[in-house]
Amino acid sequence: MSLARxxxxxxxxxxxxELRMASTYGGPLEGYPCKPFNDRKVDRxxxxxxxxxxxTPVHLxxxxxxxxxxxxxxxxxxxxxxAVTCVGSFRSEALDPAHDRSRLIVxxxxxxxxxxxxxxxxPSLRDLPWERLAEDEEFQRPALGPVPGARGDGPAR
Length: 157
Prior knowledge:
The chain starts with a strand and ends in a 20-residue tail after the last strand. It has three helices and six strands; from the N terminus they run ββαβββααβ. A hairpin with a 7-residue loop joins β4 and β5 (101-110). It is 17% helix and 26% strand. It has 157 residues and is α+β, with helices and mostly antiparallel strands.
């Protein structure tokens, strides 16, 4: 069961099967939000997604960065990322018909904690080049063969 379906700009529907959201600046800040701090935050978020979903491609949608008119400290000007970090596991039809489906983990930032759905998802999310980023996968099918303990000439004893 998917949480939501997002319609990409290409017309491809993708199903959101898992979504992790967090406040971008939820914990205590050591200093103020600036480029070095935000770059580390984005890098940690990417590494965390790669560890959480091993073997699945992970794509970062670069976050928009705002520069409010505030005093620049020792690490440069104040730089603010959108309020919510998101890591979503998406699935769609296979890229190659010989496979079962395609998958992609997407990391993005958005201004509010809402689940993307339909055509109302963030424009950067809807613009994903799925065919270039996603990877096909096949379901694991059980091997066919004799049932252990069965002799084939009647009920197992």
